[in-house]
Amino acid sequence: MRLFQAFYWDCPQAEGKEGVWWQYLQTKVPALAKIGITGLWLPPSAKSSHIDSMGYAPYDYYDQGEFDQKGGVKTWFGPKAELRALIQTAHDNEMIVIADAVLNHCDIGDAKERNPITGKELMTKYTPKSGKFPRDWTNFHPCEYSSIDAGAFYGDLEGYELPDLCHDNPYTYLGVIEYIRWLKDRQAGIGYDGFRYDAVKYFDSWIVQSIQEWQKCFGVAEYWDGNKGAVKGYLDYVRWSASAFDFPLFYALREMCNNPWYDLRNLWGSGLNFDAPLHSVTFCDNHDTDRSQPIVCDKLLAYAFILTHEGVPCIFWKDYYNYSLALPNTPHGIDQLCQVHRDYAGGETALLYNDSRLYIAQRLGYRNQCGLIVVINTDSNSWRGNWVQAMWPNMQFTCVAWWGQDQNKPLDQRSDGGGWTQVYAAPRGYAVYVPEH
């Protein structure tokens, strides 16, 4: 699978597409499918308490741009009909569509009410126009069912705390579960195929586990932590029913790109993708990291890694379109690397050579994906390469993707009877070689 994050923070306004984002994105689908994108991750599509919202604090879960409330009918992304049309176009192009499920907290409600446990007055009275999943203080922490969940979110909007849902309340739990079922329903609901779970550190893991074991769909959790053991611990809690965004790998890739003194010997084994590749969603930036801690130097080195290694790679909208890293119709950017991932990046990964500035690994191949060799060179002054023993003896290797400070194509190579061959990459560059069977 190759995911595409089809948004970034404030994208409708930044792109001049307020209220028509779904329609705009629909026009992009065929071209994305052509380079091998097989999944779209959409922003949260439920309406918040104000129109110009990215949706990460839902008000009416069932209003996906259908009811005239909170400033209008459309969400910031468009009306419900255009959302469904986008999803249908994605399905027609053999893509799955991932909903961003915000299950921890809500936007502010319609009226204040007193929580008798704390004595505080909060905006926790909800009377949504959809008529579905109305809520009051008993649906949030603290209430008679539970005093606190896995962690308080402590969000704030217009001076009001954003309340955390209490899933221990059976009504809340059933409301969330029915909402998930409706999001996936292609007839009466929206037609999503899977879920990205927002801010999972802040609510109990059994909710994600329950949904995943029930729906048996693709699911990826945002467990934001650079500690690989902590991320694996969360996946243990959900009984490996979902995947997780590979934040440990992201931080390693960020260091590789941003820090000219990064030692590439620290890269192998750094991410979840090395230990649990079937549960790793790898990425080079997202809507949050782009605003706070982005990769700012030679980001194509990071894309060369995630699009040749194990894990499910996720391409970020701004990298592809706004930062001009797609480089279509050339061998140098994300477009070509996506096609490399689709056509060649199968099987397990083996490290062939590693030093402080040079990293060489191979994919062993699986079924119709014959495998590849990837070279990453972080030396800013010279071409780097080395002799390596690949799994293919007496084989011609063609360099099909490359980029660096020197844009000349690395020379094609041939292995001897023992599989030994030389491979190279340009300064601050990468090269991907594939065997010619």
* Low-pLDDT sequence parts: none
Residues in helix, %: 25-40%
Second CATH tier, the architecture of the largest domain: Alpha-Beta Barrel
Gross geometry = elongated
CATH class of the largest domain equals Alpha Beta
Mean pLDDT: 96
Radius of gyration: 23 Å
Into how many domains do the coordinates divide? 2
CATH superfamily of the largest domain: Glycosidases
- Main β sheet profile: 8 strands, parallel, barrel
Structural class, from secondary structure content? alpha/beta
CATH topology of the largest domain: TIM Barrel
Number of helices: 12
**What is the quaternary state of this protein?**
single chain
State the strand order across the main sheet.
1-2-3-8-9-10-11-12
Beta percentage is 15-25%
How far is the first residue's CA from the last residue's CA?
24 Å
Number of strands: 20
Task: Please tell me about this protein's structure.
The protein has 437 residues and is an alpha/beta fold. The protein contains twelve helices and 20 strands. The strands form five sheets. It has an eight-stranded parallel beta barrel with strand order 1-2-3-8-9-10-11-12, surrounded by four helices. Strands 13-14-15-20-17-18 form a six-stranded antiparallel sheet. The chain has helices at 11-14, 21-34, 80-92, 170-184, 206-215, 228-237, 247-258, 272-275, 289-292, 299-306, 317-322, 334-343; strands spanning 3-5, 39-41, 96-101, 111-114, 121-125, 156-157, 160-161, 194-197, 219-221, 243-245, 280-283, 312-316, 349-354, 358-363, 372-377, 384-389, 396-403, 413-414, 420-425, 429-435. The protein folds into two domains: 3-108 and 150-343, Alpha-Beta Barrel (TIM Barrel); 349-435, Golgi alpha-mannosidase II (Immunoglobulin-like), CATH 2.60.40.1180. Strand 8 (194-197), helix 5 and strand 9 (219-221) form a beta-alpha-beta unit. Residues 3-367 form the Glycosyl hydrolase family 13 catalytic domain. The active site is at residues 198, 222. It holds the Pfam family Alpha-amylase.
